[in-house]
Amino acid sequence: MDDFLAARSQMALSLGFHIIFSCIGMVMPFFMAVSHYKWLKTNDEVYKNLTKAWSKGVAIFFATGAVSGTMLSFELGLLWPKFMEHAGPIFGMPFSLEGTAFFIEAIALGFFLYGWNKLNKWFHWFTGMVVGVSGLASGILVVAANAWMNSPAGFDFVNGKYLNIDPIQAMFNKAWFSQALHMCLAAFTATGFAVAGVHALMILRDQNKEFHFKAFKIAATFACIGALLQPLSGDISAKDVAERQPAKLAAMEALYKTEKPAPLLIGGIVNEKDKTVKGAIKIPGALSFLAHGDFKAEVKGLDKIPENEHPPVAVTHYAFQIMVGIGTLLALISLVYFINLIRKRSLLEKRWLLKLFVLAVPLGYIALEAGWVVTEVGRQPWIIYGIMRTKDAVTPMPGIAYSFYIFSAIYLSLSCIVTFLLYRQIKMVPVLYNKTNHNDQ
Amino acid sequence: MEYVVITFLCLGILLYFLLGGADFGAGIIELFTSTENRSRTRKTMYQAIGPVWEANHMWLIIAIVILFVGFPHIYTTMSVYLHIPLLIMLIGIIARGTAFVFRHYDAVKDDMQWLYNRIFRYSSFVTPLFLGIIAGSVISGHIDTDAKDFLSAYIYSWLNWFSVAVGLFTVALCGFLAAIYLIGETDNDHDKRRFIKKAEYMNISAVIFGAMVFIAAQFDNIPLIDWVFRNTVGVTAIILASFSLILLWYLLIKGKTKVLRILAGFQVTMILVAISYAHFPNFIRLKNGSAISLFETVGPEKTIYSLGLALLLGSVLILPFLGYLFYKFQKKEE
């Protein structure tokens, strides 16, 4: 494995790992806060137990997300020193604010996890909310930094020099809003479906039905609202990418030739050598509409872009298909869920619907990772879009492949342990449920 | 604003040494505790650092973000030439943080605890060791930006007597800080005496490793003695540290707790001041005799201005909240 590929793989692995943990860490506190609120309002012990059960999951995920995030703040320099040397002062603003938000989150989490019976109950609830809000803020800020790589702003690039640096302008680059919105909704959808699905499974197994059903409803409501809003946010993103990064859009849709009007390709097998796509379903004019809001508009294909600036087409295209496909499916499940809710049908008897939720446990995260691949692989070969190439930013140190192997092993074992721990947590719910047997931490 | 940012950088590094250090130290203490007392040590430690450990490690993030936003040249030079020790330190941070949480939140307490405990203890030792090695390497003048071969560019930059001695010294200091901290966190008289003993041992080893740092410096031709004793600040810091050492032993024998913490923190601060003052504002010393200075590599004006503002704003939000956290969860003195 050559060093450049190893560095890219290690970065992708670290981010791919971190993204799941941090999404859970930023979304779960909101579920907890709702359940906590219901407990404070209704005095129903089930909600208290639920809040505690979830908070243990959050503690595990937060710690894992925090250490992998620490890792990333070093890894940017360890793997891409030449990028950081120039980019640090320009896109650092969201990072420094994120540091603050993250710090507040860690403090609030300390209060929340250890504050049972020690704090005023509403202050305790408030600290839980602070965990969620500051986590969400961290997420938005980090995505804003990534958006800058897609849509560089806040400096003038003159003869290879970065002049007139304005970090505020860099933070509010053109892509920050659409990317952050899409990411946040994805986090809520994916985590919501994962949590709801696990509880649905327990309901199907007839274990502690009351507990799991309360949990299911909170998580599913968040998930389904997210899933229904996500297509709208996706539309904003598509129009934005079409304008700023035509090469990425063309790769997402495997559009090798500029067309007017351009069809939307669904599925299909990409042949990167012949620059063709086989077996895709074509919807005439749909891409023109999605990208520019006009069924007859021209969409720039890869032929209009110099060959050495093409992103990998197949990966981007497949990832995009996966994301959109799953997104659509989840939106449909959400629709069914809300229809049942409005008609006041008993969800507990709709076993097929619960089964759909179980099926959806991994789907949200698969879509989320696929979306991340679309953004990042679709940006290649650039690390700063149009300014610096990824291969020019890599560290001069040889042997990165070994560090990639080590981290693959670490992340793989961490994933296994966390899954194992969650399995045990869920298995222990009946014990927690038995009031004589639960302790306070 | 430059000064604000540099102050926060120094503060971040110092607090990470003190708070994160005490945190690592707790694991080191556990490592050097006999099996019969371990579970009690673990419990005391958990109550003491459980609520605050995440926050303690945020100082590292603050310091690193300041470096890469405000002083990118320093950040990237370290990332390139100290890649390997940084990587090991990071692995240590990952292993330690996750093991600490896993062992507490594993719903079933079984043989897995054995694994978590092992990982936690060893990584508590390795992480500050490499943190110290990195700190030592930055000022050791072994970083060679003109190196042509792998060994001198990426290995000898940190693998030298001085850096390793600083690493061990750091470990001893962490253990010392933790022992002092834990004394005040237990009600049990037996445990209290145990932690006092530990603090004494750790203090003695810190003095020994401290002496080794000076010897290693002579060995590696590092003018450490000049740095420390050729300026008033260095000398004053050393004198204050020595005096507080005497006072500290006196109080240690008396078993006072809260004053001890302040004293121990003060001592470590003085040591850091004594070692680093002579270079300031130089941050990294290079093999060719030149140095990378904070002022010369500071980022563009607007960046520093907004970074400083973000830090000030952040500290208004963070410090009271953090102070309350420490206050709320500390053991009340009877």
Automatic annotation (TrEMBL), chain A:
It is found in: Cell membrane. It is a multi-pass membrane protein. The chain crosses the membrane at residues 12-37, 58-80, 100-116, 123-149, 180-203, 215-233, 318-340, 352-374, 400-423. InterPro entries: Cyt-d_ubiquinol_oxidase_su_1. Keywords: Cell membrane, Electron transport, Heme, Iron, Membrane, Metal-binding, Transmembrane, Transmembrane helix, Transport. Its main location: membrane. It holds the Pfam family Cyt_bd_oxida_I. It comes from the Bacteria. Belongs to the cytochrome ubiquinol oxidase subunit 1 family. This is Cytochrome ubiquinol oxidase subunit I.
Automatic annotation (TrEMBL), chain B:
It is a multi-pass membrane protein. The chain crosses the membrane at residues 6-32, 53-74, 80-102, 122-143, 155-180, 201-219, 231-252, 259-280, 304-327. It holds the Pfam family Cyt_bd_oxida_II. Keywords: Cell membrane, Membrane, Transmembrane, Transmembrane helix. It comes from the Bacteria. It is found in: Cell membrane. Belongs to the cytochrome ubiquinol oxidase subunit 2 family. PANTHER family: CYTOCHROME BD2 SUBUNIT II (PTHR43141). This is Cytochrome d ubiquinol oxidase subunit II. It comes from Pedobacter rhodius.
